Hints:
Layout (H helix, E strand, L loop, with lengths): L1 E9 L8 E6 L7 H11 L3 E6 L8 E6 L4 E2 L3 H15 L7 E10 L2 E10 L4 E6 L5 E2 L6 H7 L15 E4 L3 E6 L3 H6 L4 H9 L5 E6 L9 E7 L4 E4 L3 H15 L4 E9 L7 E10 L2 E20 L1
Helix pairs in contact: 3-5
Amino acid sequence: MALTYHILDVFTDRRFGGNPLAVVLGAEGLSDTQMQAIAGEFNLSETVFVLPSERPAHSAKIRIFTPRSEVPFAGHPTIGTATLLAGLQAPPASNGEADALVILEQNIGTVRVGVRLREGAPAFAEFDAPKLPAEAGVLPPLDILAAGLGLMPSEVGFENHKPICFAAGNTFAFVPVASLDAIRRARINGAHWERAFDQQGVVGVYLYTRQCEHTGHAFHVRMFAPQVGIPEDPATGSAAVCLAGVVQHFDGLPDGTYKRIVEQGYEMGRPSQIVLTLVVAGGKLTSVRTGGASVRVATGTLEV
């Protein structure tokens, strides 16, 4: 069986930045075992398998695999797959501009993605989080967390921000870091990491600081997920959704709409920008939107 696949770089406006993604089309003939093996072969943070939708009005059903396991939802696969399908399916417009609504069935539920296509510019997509973030889980004491990241306890936390777990389909440990210098030095620190994070039921560990590489960006972040085969991720949309809950939990934003740009992947040489929009009403987070650009890098045939 020969299947077409595409490679995209997501959460970036240029090739060889952002988070690379493999999308395999026409995957309905593949077994779970084959999908997992193919994801391991690509060895990217995630690989998407596109299947026919269960409802005629929807664009496609997708399944998302890391090199080691299937996940119910992920941000950069949602953005990348939506821009790919819109580019392949949207009728060409005379002025080179097109907008599309791509509806993806995922294990977490149905996700609606708005896509903007402009001639000569990277595609941009934005989706409403299918599930609002909520606090989940308990983390070990500060000294254990710091040791797991190769940091001093004094380098963990800033203002009133403290380590916490949040989930919106996937559960992440959120660790605030005091400075850009400290977050750059953070690492997976051997057995100390296992003691800090392996028994917490989290998909990954998300470090964030307010100090950024670029003026106008709100947070500089890193995400480690060795448990699912991702030593470090260049851009993590699903964790950014949870970050919105963390921000509201600690910052208590007044009612209104807030846009924040999150930078990630700089330590890996794959700079990424995630556009995060928070809507607060009645003192509570009521909506989270995640957006970003993506560019197609390669197209090929997969022999199965």
